[in-house]
Amino acid sequence: MKKIYVLDTNVLLQDPNAVYAFEDNLVVIPAVVLEEIDSKKRNADEIGRNARYVSRLLDSLRAKGHLYEGIELERGGSVKVELNHRSFLKMQEVFGETTNDNRILAVALNYHLEEQNKPDAKPVVLVSKDTLVRIKADVLGIHAEDYLTDRIVNDTDMYTGNVTLDVQPAVIDEFYSHRALSASSLPRSPALYPHEFVILKDEMGSSKSALLKADAGGNKLEPLKLSTEPIWGIAARNAQQRMALELLLNDDIPLVTLSGKAGTGKTLMALAAGLIKTEDEHKYKKLLIARPVVPMGKDIGYLPGEKEEKLRPWMQPIYDNLEFLFNTKRSGDIDKILAGMGSIQVEALTYIRGRSIPGQFIIIDEAQNLSRHEVKTIVSRVGEGSKIVLVGDPEQIDHPYLDAFSNGLTYVVEKFKDQSLSGHIMLEKGERSRLAQLAADLL
Questions:
Q1: In a domain, 230, yes or no
Q2: Which residues face 234 on adjacent strands?
Q3: pLDDT at residue 333, as a whole number
Q4: Residue 16 is part of a domain; what is its CATH number?
Q5: Is 288 helix (H, G, I), strand (E, B) or coil?
Q6: What's the rounded Cα separation, in Å, for the pair 173 and 169?
Q7: Domain match, 90 and 203 both
Q8: How far is CA 244 from the centre of its chain?
């Protein structure tokens, strides 16, 4: 049975191609949605880009007919711009105020009431990323859904980069004897991704264990090459941190993604690895550290000063980690150190478009606040001989239209997990402090 999908503005601003995502059904765009999109088109961010894209898309569809009558789509289904759809009277009986959200709900409600009186009634579904809009729709008796097409993965399927297996003690002994192990010799022969880590534990209950890493093909298990010696004063405190350092210091893996809760050491380890590769080994000519300018909570508005002064509050978490690594004692010392070295660059992602970045160790902090389009733009900037590290916590997102399953970091992890040029690890144990770990778990 065909359905009628009424789209909220946030669906189109999140995925400008959403009109093609509903198969052989009718997609209805209320007129007020066009007004809201028009108000966003001048924004110089991802939201503005998507608003302009939607405008051009709908304009191109006009060549096929009138949008208010409905236009057949090449991929199946049709799209229609609804000018008013009768009246707002039914909505006023429940929600009196004439807000944009209520006008969108009124369109869905009037369609729902009309379809009920037809012998071949079509289900009416309101699609919105706004939880309260979906709740209000439920109050009105309208079926409402979240827009899940943009989700890269479900919460139960998120790739962690490591797996723990219980095996016979003889399997562990074989690994230590030959310093290698075939993936096919493991129980149930799990399909391993390139550079995935495996922790073997004795199924008989002894303390015998082994930490291995799959090769670039995912067929052979090898011991970790990294020694346990600290790098720039940073030593791995748990198994996942050792895995992360193994990926960070491997020059054959140009893309590394690190995810995990606050305090798991993601940014600190990435910076330590970047410093040893640029300053000690001179593998890369420059260390570039960037993060998206997305505020947590209410924005503080425009900041005074030159570009460096404006960016300092946004980049302060990076400077905090650098101060720890350089063991500075006084305020301002880190600025003098960075100015003297010249090979460490800290900046916002605002200025990365159009660049080509060869021969550099690139760290993108807070990558969970990037959209799929933004992360594609960033990773495609990486030039020959560069390594890029994406760091973030998918559970701490400040972007209004992203969640743990649709953000740029999760997108890269899932799309690259079967590629030999990338490696991923999800850090689980917090090492910042006992209080920080407790807060991450409880709050």
A1: no
A2: 231
A3: 74
A4: 3.40.50.1010
A5: strand
A6: 6
A7: no
A8: 18
Residue 328 is assigned to a structural domain of this protein: yes
pTM of the model: 0.79
pLDDT digits (tens, 9 = 90+) for 258-308: 999 888 889 999 999 999 999 999 999 999 998 887 543 344 444 455 545
Rounded to whole angstroms, what are the CA distances from 54 to 8, 19, 33, 60, 301? 13, 10, 11, 10, 28
Residues 88 and 184 in one domain: no
**Sheet strands side by side (includes 143-145):** 71-72, 78-82, 26-30, 4-7, 124-127, 143-145
Rounded percentage of the chain residues whose pLDDT exceeds 90: 49
DSSP tag of 297: S
Tens-place pLDDT, residues 103-130: 999 999 999 999 988 888 999 999 999 9
The answer on 411 and 292 residing in a single domain is: yes
* Domain assignment of residue 35, yes or no: yes
Q: What is the CATH number of the domain that holds 215?
A: 2.30.130
Q: Which residues pair with residue 162 across a beta bridge?
A: 197
Question: Which candidate, 402, 413, 414, 346, places its Cα nearest to that of 370?
Answer: 402
